[in-house]
What we know:
Strand content of chain C: 15-25%
Helix content of chain A: 40-55%
Structural class of chain A: alpha/beta
Shape of chain C: globular
Order of helices and strands of chain C: HHHHEHEEHEHEEEHHEH
Number of strands of chain C: 8
Number of domains of chain A: 1
Largest interface: A-D, 70 and 80 residues
Strand content of chain A: 15-25%
CATH superfamily of chain A: 2-enoyl-CoA Hydratase, Chain A, domain 1
CATH architecture of chain A: Alpha-Beta Complex
Oligomer: heterotetramer
Bound molecules: zinc ion
CATH class of chain A: Alpha Beta
Amino acid sequence: MPKRPRDTLSVWQVVELARHPERPYALDYIRRMAPDFVELHGDRVSHDDPALVAGPGSWRGLTVMFFGQQKGRNLAERVARNWAMMHPEGYRKAMRLARQAAKFGFPIVSLVDTPGAFPGAGAEERGIALAIGQAIMGWFEIPVPVVAAVIGEGGSGGALGMAVADRVLMLENSIYSVASPEAAASIVWRDSARKVEAAAQLQVTSRDLQAMGVVEEVVPEPEGGAHRDHEAAACALEAALWRHLEPLLRLPASELLQHRYERFRYIDSLVQAAPDFGPKVEPRGAAGNPAER
Amino acid sequence: MPKRPRDTLSVWQVVELARHPERPYALDYIRRMAPDFVELHGDRVSHDDPALVAGPGSWRGLTVMFFGQQKGRNLAERVARNWAMMHPEGYRKAMRLARQAAKFGFPIVSLVDTPGAFPGAGAEERGIALAIGQAIMGWFEIPVPVVAAVIGEGGSGGALGMAVADRVLMLENSIYSVASPEAAASIVWRDSARKVEAAAQLQVTSRDLQAMGVVEEVVPEPEGGAHRDHEAAACALEAALWRHLEPLLRLPASELLQHRYERFRYIDSLVQAAPDFGPKVEPRGAAGNPAER
Amino acid sequence: MRPEVGPEEWASWGVSPSSVAASGGRLPPIALTTNCPSCGVGLVPEALRERCYVCDCGHHFRMHADAWIALLADAGSWQERWADIRPHDLLEWKVPRAYQETLDQARAEGLNEAVRVGTATLAGLAVWLAVFDFRFVGGSLSIVAGERLTRSLEQAAATRTPYLLLAASGGARMQEGILALMQMAKINGAVGRLHQMGVPYFAVLTDPTYGGVPASLALLADVNIAEPGAAIGFTGPRVIKQSTHADLPPGFQSAEFQLRCGQVDLVVPRTELRARLAHLIQLYTRPGRGRG
Amino acid sequence: MRPEVGPEEWASWGVSPSSVAASGGRLPPIALTTNCPSCGVGLVPEALRERCYVCDCGHHFRMHADAWIALLADAGSWQERWADIRPHDLLEWKVPRAYQETLDQARAEGLNEAVRVGTATLAGLAVWLAVFDFRFVGGSLSIVAGERLTRSLEQAAATRTPYLLLAASGGARMQEGILALMQMAKINGAVGRLHQMGVPYFAVLTDPTYGGVPASLALLADVNIAEPGAAIGFTGPRVIKQSTHADLPPGFQSAEFQLRCGQVDLVVPRTELRARLAHLIQLYTRPGRGRG
Ligand SMILES: [Zn+2]
Ligand SMILES: [Zn+2]
């Protein structure tokens, strides 16, 4: 079982960099990639979700549909953006515009940066669980290239709902985890103060995820972290995104969707390869008898 | 221009019959047609709309998806059903289950009986206009047979949202109109008390609509009206619905959808045939120049 | 013009400022009150006309179809279609006023139904343009309006030309009865086919847009744009208050309310509209895009 | 059993009462409190067992996977699949308790992961059946659970066999880290294909169903069924109160709440569940139906 390479930073230092208040946020990248980005709004049901910015823009001669979970730079912005914690309407807006991208053949870029979906009563009343589930299922039916990048925090299902892509990248000092370290600590220890140990055990850094085969590439950040040089961080991310998107533009839709399916179908192959895991998938139809009608 | 046949009842008497408190309501018909009807719930967004009952049931050896705008028999029921005035969630529930019917190849029967969509703040906040517009557009993309019948009041867009079908029938003493007589009176006279004159001018009876080519068949009611004999009224409606649905079951989906499109595309041919109406549709492409790219 | 977003920014979008500026020149005159209903300032018609009838306070005055066509269509590019389709008094509507009289008077005033359609270019980009005229029986949806909209939608689909709607309506036309209601289905069938053909559709909702128009095509665009302060909804506030005895919050059904409620994508000042639309049309019609 | 809807009604649905009654016979014993937490009555385990562990007051006691399989699968029809897939401590999770220890103990207690899948018949109708076991690390979604769910969904799609899910889960399994989260995507890809193949999917959500399970497959069925009083949601009430300091209304996230909120189709008492499911499967698999 491959070990995490020795990082020069502790896991918790990485967590703190991923959450650094000066770190570039989604719009800092999107506006650099597509200065003519047009933010569109609304789930066409009952709300708009400011925690997710979404809309088309011009990038490298293409019209691309951009999505970004957007944090706020100051308190007012953070409140307005709800700390990038999405409500159901955000996932519904995303699916509406992903289908629009499919209608026009626009490739999709999604930037992930959220502590998680919003843990509030209104989100529950409006079906946050199903909204995330429909988004995760919906992405598998969007016949245009989708490239996602975790640029800061990739928190739980709230992040995954915007990261079902053909390629998933991570900035060097970003994290992606099944639950925030605090949440995991309160689940496992019943004490969120144990977040540092939790983060270490959860293995949340970009290198961890690359080692586990969950992300295709770790995008290096400027010395000391992306917050030290937004411009350089954006250049690196832009180049990496294009490197992954460009070949996808040539794939027929059917292949694209088949690859996306298999990317997640076998994403845990590291574990499935373990000798004690058990038998691999059997030839289909083996269990067919009851179904022959 | 054909005149309304001389009815034995005044237009307003028909309006009163259509609204008769003892008149059979949607569930009175559905439960007789499909005793095993299962009412399903929810728009999968944030609400369920009790003003619309919807779900599958067995009818003539088929599984059919039933829809019905449901009034209440007593005050408690009327409040619970909101007098059959739908909210946006009702039209979203309808589209969800219409797509489910398409998934499984279930034909659809829709029973229309509403004063109109609910004129309330909550309905506006949750997008009643768009919900109706999406439903009207959505029905044209449901590749299974759809037969609708107005069984009481067919009020405005709230009714049309459930009546975009391959065949539309009306019970003899039901009405279907661009606006309720009261609403039309308050728009035209600024005085809803002029509802009787408004109803007469609007030409809202089943015979009027048949004469205008808007409905395929008027289903006769028992002597004195459907409320006199629910059983007989249900038998007549059931037979008429099947007479119209059965031939549709043999049509390929593409033909079905093309016919549905043309049914509404040329529903006003009576007017288009008028000598002073103007030129008919021109050969397509005639205006193509600006588009040649 | 007093654009919040100026030519230098249009250029950064790849939209040529000159092409944006090259609109139908000066707008036709509009009947105006003497003072602005929002800020009360005395109005100077000529000055206001230069600013697309937007007051310095931001109040957007209602414009009629001719003004909208002049604003949106490049000079000389407007080719009106099916202008000779005529309304018909099928129901022989008599009281309180004969429908035929209503029609004759509107025609005498030089109005040609509640919707006019045609082809044009906007900043050099080909579009099908459909414009409601609130002066004609309150922009009410009629058989002629529905027929013009449907034919133009079908043509836009057949020729893959972007479709641009300018909406302003009080609802369906009572005097045409059930056939006016049926236009909603006729139109939306065609809207569905426009989408299936992958043709871009942009809608601009202006003050007021109510009833059968937002409940048919007006909110079904790929990008829904509303004018600042425009009242948009299904049921009007008066009827809602009557039937529910509810107090409606200030700004209820305003463009900004509909933005919060997820129904519209953008609220765009009229002074920016041409540039915004030019940019959107370019984005949504760019050749050599990825596959759908 | 004390069915609110009795055999005569099942018959009227075309569901044979005998086939409904022919369940896996008596349910296995369940660990019970001495009194009902809802009505406080002293519990008689044998009597309760005869009533599918539903108290006279309507309280539904939690059942484990063996009980669910006995209740839903016709006697002798259950063929478990992929029971030999084993969890793996990829992260070498140590504190506060080693994951391997947790796994070993659960295995020692005769538990085989949080999800078990297999084929069965329900009232004679072939189904793929997936059952969560809350006893195994709180029914948490793990790699083995995800793999069993995905393989069974793929098999159901390939053989066009109706899929029946029995959900009970506290969320994703922390000790498997990001790969536990990824199961949500793996599973939902397969759910999408099940739908594309036109195969009926029914989900039964029991107390409790939280986190990654309702946010992946549990609410994506054609018909979502919840047990009376079951707590269903994404975030648990404790965390919601902590993070928003909000008071939650009584019944928040209950099955009845989710019915009002449009997330589930039906709330069905356990005593009726077999008959209801048999009826739904018949409706959704009827041959000679209209075309899709
Ligand atoms: Zn002013
Ligand atoms: Zn009890």
